[in-house]
Amino acid sequence: MITVPAIPLLLQRTPCHPFVSALIMVLGLLGTGVAQASEPNHASSMYGNVKYPAGFSHFDYVNPDAPKGGKLKLNSIGTFDSLNPWIIKGTSAAGITRIYDTLTIASLDEPFTQYGLIAEKMEIADDRSWEIFYLDPKATFADGKPITTEDVAFTFHTLVQQGSPFWGFYYKDVTQVDVLDKLRIKFSFKEGASRELPLIIGQMAILPKHYWQDRDFSKTSLDIPVGSGPYKIAEVKPGKRIVYERRDDYWAKDLPVNKGLHNFDSISYDYYQDETVALEAFKGSAYDYRQETTAQRWATGYQSPALSSGRIIKEEITHSQPAGMQAFAFNLRKPLFQDIVLRKAINLAFDFEWSNKTLFYNQYKRTNSYFQNSDMASHGLPSAKELSLLSPYRDQLPAELFRQPFTVPVTDGQGHPRAQLKTAQTLLADAGYTLQGNQLFTPDSQPVKFEFLLTNSAFERVVLPFTRNLATLGIQVTVRRIDQPQYVNRLRTFDYDMIVVVFPQSASPGSEQRMYWSSEAADSEGSQNYIGIKNDVVDALVNKLVDSQTYEQLVTRSQALDRVLLWNYYVVPNWYNNTFRLAYRNTLAHPAFGSDLYAIPLDAWWSKAATSK
Predict the structure, then answer these.
(1) End-to-end alpha-carbon separation of the chain, Å?
(2) How far is CA 469 from CA 66, 151, 155, 269, 463, in A?
(3) d(C-alpha 405, C-alpha 102), whole Å
(4) Domains of the chain
(5) What pLDDT score was predicted for residue 1?
(6) Is residue 509 a contact partner of residue 371, using CB atoms and an 8 Å limit?
(7) Coil, helix or strand for 154?
(8) Which of 228, 342, 461, 516 has most Cβ atoms within 10 angstroms of its Cβ?
(9) d(CA 512, CA 322)
(10) pLDDT, tens digit, for every residue of 290-328?
């Protein structure tokens, strides 16, 4: 299960039906031979552990008495031309999912669990072959119309049929959707489907059928849509600014999962063309909050009268968030990159130690796993349980996978990794590559040259030294930076040679892995298989991972998949850290955050000038 900006997930709650009604339904299911279920519950969990019991008052990471009021000004980079975040076309506005509620909502200090929002309760078969959501009868859209199971069914079918390809992969194992009545809807799942699928369905943001049924959902639009969430759209300036206004009539504002959240009267996003301009605007008080992702900016970029006077606060918060994989990714759709020897040689040319010391102020650690900073990361040699998964594919895997731990190259940090480059030259020569002057040629006499496509100027200072090392090997690389809309379109159509990519991970990897690595996704325009992986072993391991029935299985299968991905050298791994780097105006306040957080709950912040309403 994954929760990232590219995958909009939303908030939800739970309603109560009489016990007799639930009992009658369960008995009816037993009578027809359908799998048994526990009683409807306020929360659903992958493995049965729930932190917050029924009747809980609020999440631990919020201030339940946070005052309401004030404005929160944020920024975004690039532009937008759509208010529909669910389709492949266009660029949707920042923060747009604030206007929607989901069936359930995750707490940010616990993995594997969802709590009710639009769905007051959830009932799951003991064998997890189906799930029934009980909608809260109080749930309404912003226009006052009730949220019914017809809206839920409509949302599911619309996303799968007309939405981004992501949704088809994410909901692939749903076999049937049955509207039982106005407030009960049943999702049936394929035999052996992932244990997380009931949680995944709960993350669905519900769309109003009455608004969308006569509109073309597949097209971009700047018409203001109807939602059900805590905010509504108050102002739209395409490509420049969007403003959300807190709804006083929000149906779920008093539910425990919302207590202490949604404290600002308005939240606005102003757009900037690049991060340099955006940072200067922040120091000039144009907006209120930044979560910094660049080490150099964090180390030196915030120096200003506003920082020295205390008007800007810098804070680092340790977190438990899996780091996933950020990397320079090869596009295997290009014939040049089909050769694992070339990919391995290119890996040897990246001097992370120099970059970390010279560019990053030693703030980062080298990424050594696709599931970095989590239990799912492989380490050492394969365990006995991993070997039972991997041995049947021994003839299709690099022999080294079974004999030695995977490690990324380590340099002396001088900027020109001579030992690694010499090893790369030997690998290439042994594989039939030839150097003619300053140009390397493949065994079939094709020049080794490609384009590195960027949209973020901050990466140029990392990529350019990397390309100079590659030039030592005779590999000629052109670095090209383009604007965000053009970059997004080229990603969707896989029109690039090499890019910087992030494969985010959660504490419970699952169905989204198909979107990242499967052969089917490689041929699906708009998918997140940016690498273009088509590997039967990867496909088999992804399916096993998704089908995991216990946490132990999930760990073993994730680690096995991790090894196969690493030993195929599909990417040049980058770096990570385990802190959130926050900069904000001293007019803002937040609750005390522990290291068990998986994300920063910005909706739990408040304005110091606000008074409770």
Answers:
(1) 36
(2) 53, 56, 50, 40, 10
(3) 42
(4) 231-320+580-607 (3.40.190.10), 325-513+572-576 (3.10.105.10)
(5) 54
(6) yes
(7) helix
(8) 228
(9) 15
(10) 999 889 999 999 999 999 999 999 999 988 789 999 999
- Using left for φ > 0, alpha for ψ between -120 and 50, and beta otherwise, residue 474 falls in left
Residue type, 181: D
Distance CA(76)–CA(241), nearest Å, equals: 9
What DSSP state is assigned to residue 93? P
> Residue type at 308?
S
DSSP secondary structure, 347-412, as one string:
HHT--HHHHHHHTSTT--EE---TTBTSTT---SSPPHHHHHHHGGGGGGS-THHHHS--------
Question: pTM, whole model, 2 decimals?
Answer: 0.78
Which residue do the tokens 């076309």 mark?
Answer: 89
Tokens of residue 265, six digits: 């009267």
pLDDT of residue 508: 85
- For residue range 134-190, list pLDDT tens digits in order: 999 999 999 999 999 999 999 999 999 999 988 998 899 999 999 999 999 999 999
Query: Distances from the Cα of 290 to the Cαs of 242, 312, 354, 578, in angstroms?
Result: 17, 11, 27, 17
Within 10 Å of residue 33's Cβ, how many Cβ atoms? Answer: 6
Q: Using the structure block, give the residue that is written with the tokens 């206007």.
A: 99
Inter-residue contact 608 to 587 (CB < 8 Å): yes
Task: Provide Rg for the chain, Cα atoms.
Answer: 25
Q: What is the pLDDT of residue 2?
A: 43
Backbone angles phi and psi of 23, in degrees to 5: -65, -45
Answer for the pair 606, 263: CB distance below 8 angstroms, yes or no.
Answer: yes
Cβ-count burial of 322 within 10 angstroms (0-12 exposed, 13-18 middle, 19+ buried)? Answer: buried
For 289, the token pair is 């909050």
- As a whole number of angstroms, the distance between CA 279 and CA 299 comes to 13
Neighbours of 424 (CB within 10 A): 26
Residue 274: is it exposed, middle or buried by C-beta count within 10 angstroms (0-12/13-18/19+)? middle
Three-state secondary structure along 413-471?
A: CCCCCHHHHHHHHHHHHHCCCEEECCEEECCCCCECEEEEEECCHHHHHHHHHHHHHHH
Please tell me the distance from the alpha carbon of residue 62 to that of residue 593, in angstroms, as a whole number: 9
Contact criterion met (CB below 8 Å) for 58 and 147: no
Residues, the chain: 613
How distant, in Å, are the alpha carbons of 174, 502, 608 from that of 588?
43, 30, 6
Q: What is the pLDDT of residue 452?
A: 98
Q: What is the mean pLDDT of the chain?
A: 92
Q: Find, among 217, 222, 220, the residue nearest to 236 by Cα.
A: 222
Cα–Cα dist 487/96, whole Å = 21
Q: Please give the average pLDDT of every successive group of 10 residues along the chain, which has 613 residues.
A: 34 30 31 55 89 96 97 96 95 97 95 95 94 98 98 98 91 96 97 88 97 96 97 97 98 98 98 95 97 92 96 92 95 98 98 96 96 96 98 97 97 94 98 97 98 94 97 98 92 97 91 94 94 98 92 96 98 95 97 87 95 55
